[in-house]
């Protein structure tokens, strides 16, 4: 998601039977706006999508390069410019800019994953320049009445190890909404983030952005425990989803 990635502000047409469709549901339906071939765009960047049930445009980052593209990025950490220690209402609707750090919004994740079956790819980079990934063949989030309950499974290792299974079936927790399983404490407050915390986490993508190994405050960084432990905060942390083919 570096280098040649291009910022695109556009109404990206999706063609069905040769006709333009101006409302792609996700990045897998975003087609090349430069012609009318109906081919999926090969250019990564910011595009508008229209998740089923949402009723309006949502700007997202589309990764069109990784594994044949079509990935909708749901969260991105890369430079620490954005504060992710936020209340429930912010995580509900989303925040940030898709071309830098952002959270797509729990409602949007629900709208997307309730309409069809999705897969999840987590791409991690450390400050030494190494990149690894974790793939999950199934990923879904419930609606707000369920606490945006997470369903994730079918793990395949790409060097990162499995940190998401521990969070399977958990509800989302923020600093002002405690849905985790930790007695007498709020995991979001304890680890300065927001996530589908259990008792509390093996990954903390929405934690405090730090620069590599830092044990000053235990496990508050942007971490992925199976790969780097609790006290290493990653340089880049991308979660992206795509309909299962």
TrEMBL record:
<dbReference type="InterPro" id="IPR014716">
    <property type="entry name" value="Fibrinogen_a/b/g_C_1"/>
</dbReference>
<dbReference type="InterPro" id="IPR036056">
    <property type="entry name" value="Fibrinogen-like_C"/>
</dbReference>
<feature type="signal peptide">
    <location>
        <begin position="1"/>
        <end position="18"/>
    </location>
</feature>
<feature type="domain" description="Fibrinogen C-terminal">
    <location>
        <begin position="18"/>
        <end position="245"/>
    </location>
</feature>
<dbReference type="InterPro" id="IPR050373">
    <property type="entry name" value="Fibrinogen_C-term_domain"/>
</dbReference>
<dbReference type="GO" id="GO:0005615">
    <property type="term" value="C:extracellular space"/>
</dbReference>
<keyword id="KW-1015">Disulfide bond</keyword>
<keyword id="KW-0732">Signal</keyword>
<dbReference type="InterPro" id="IPR002181">
    <property type="entry name" value="Fibrinogen_a/b/g_C_dom"/>
</dbReference>
<protein>
    <submittedName>
        <fullName>Microfibril-associated glycoprotein 4-like</fullName>
    </submittedName>
</protein>
<dbReference type="Pfam" id="PF00147">
    <property type="entry name" value="Fibrinogen_C"/>
</dbReference>
<dbReference type="GO" id="GO:0048251">
    <property type="term" value="P:elastic fiber assembly"/>
</dbReference>
């Amino acid at each position: 998601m570096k280098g040649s990635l291009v910022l695109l502000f556009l109404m990206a047409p999706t063609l069905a039977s040769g006709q333009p469709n101006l409302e792609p549901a996700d990045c897998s339906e975003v087609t090349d706006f430069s012609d009318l071939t109906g081919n999926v765009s090969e250019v990564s960047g910011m595009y508008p999508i229209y998740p089923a049930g949402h009723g309006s445009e949502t700007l997202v980052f589309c990764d069109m390069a990784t594994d044949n593209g079509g990935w909708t990025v749901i969260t991105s950490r890369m430079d620490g410019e954005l504060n992710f220690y936020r209340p429930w209402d912010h995580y509900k609707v989303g925040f940030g800019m898709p071309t830098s750090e952002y959270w797509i919004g729990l409602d949007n994740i629900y709208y997307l994953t309730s309409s069809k079956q999705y897969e999840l790819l987590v791409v991690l980079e450390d400050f030494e320049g190494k990149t690894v990934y974790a793939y999950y063949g199934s990923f879904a989030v419930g609606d707000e009445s369920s606490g945006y309950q997470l369903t994730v499974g079918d793990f395949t290792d790409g060097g990162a190890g499995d940190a998401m299974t521990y969070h399977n079936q958990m509800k989302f927790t923020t600093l002002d909404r405690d849905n985790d399983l930790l007695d007498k404490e709020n995991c979001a407050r304890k680890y300065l983030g927001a996530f589908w915390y259990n008792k509390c986490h093996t990954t903390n993508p929405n934690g405090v952005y730090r620069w590599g190994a830092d044990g000053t405050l235990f496990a508050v960084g942007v971490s992925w425990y199976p790969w780097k432990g609790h006290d290493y905060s990653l340089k880049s942390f991308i979660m992206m989803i795509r309909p299962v083919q």
